[in-house]
Predict the 3D structure of the following.
Amino acid sequence: AQSVTQPDIHITVSEGASLELRCNYSYGATPYLFWYVQSPGQGLQLLLKYFSGDTLVQGIKGFEAEFKRSQSSFNLRKPSVHWSDAAEYFCAVGGGSGNTGKLIFGQGTTLQVKP
Amino acid sequence: DTEVTQTPKHLVMGMTNKKSLKCEQHMGHRAMYWYKQKAKKPPELMFVYSYEKLSINESVPSRFSPECPNSSLLNLHLHALQPEDSALYLCASRPTSGGPSEQYFGPGTRLTVT
C-alpha cells in the first residue's frame, strides 16, 4: 500500500536550535517526494522536492531534505529555526509524470517555536 | 506568475443554499485539483481535472459538483451541504508536460455551513 508516515505529530524547538522533521514512505514506483508548509488558515507552500539525482536537496527558507532510499525516508532539516517557521509541515509522495499527479500526504507535523 | 487564486476567501452558507467556489491560474497548467482540508489534517483529494476533463472523482457526494470551463478556471458548485462539509477548500494546479512536477496551491476558501 502507498503511504506516508510522519511519526512526530507535534514538535517544539527553541528559536535558533536545529530542526529535523521525519518522513517515511511506502510507494510502489519511483518516489517523487515533497515537503509543503502551511501557516494557519493558508494554502500549502512548497518547501522542496526530490525527483532524482543528488539526494540532498535544498529548498526555500533555509530548509534542506535528504532522500535515503534504503530507509525509505525523506527527512527535512534546518540548522537554525526562526519564530516564523512555526507552522504545519506535510510530507507527500507521488506527483509523477502523467496527467493526474496524485499526491499522498502524511498526517502532518505541527512545529512550535519557543522564544 | 506562479499564483493560484481562489475566491471567495470566506463563505458562510445555509444548508439549502447554492454557492460556488472559484479557482484560477494563468501558468498554463493543464491539471487542476480540488481538496478538502479539516483542521489539523492533511488535504483530502476530491477531484482532478486534466485537460479540462474530469479524470478523478474520489467518491465525493453529489452535493459537490466540479466544473472546468477552460484551462485556467476551475469551479466547485455547492448545493444542500451539511455542517460536516465545513472546511478549508484548496485548489491546486500542476503542469502536465514532460516529467514529474509539483502542485501549486491556492490560499483556500474557508467554508462554514450553518
About this structure: Residues 46 and 58 of chain B are 5 Å apart (CA to CA). Chain B touches chain A at residues 4, 6, 30-31, 40-43, 45, 48, 50-51, 55-56, 88, 90, 92, 94, 96, 98-108, 110 (CB under 8 Å). The mean pLDDT of chain B is 94.
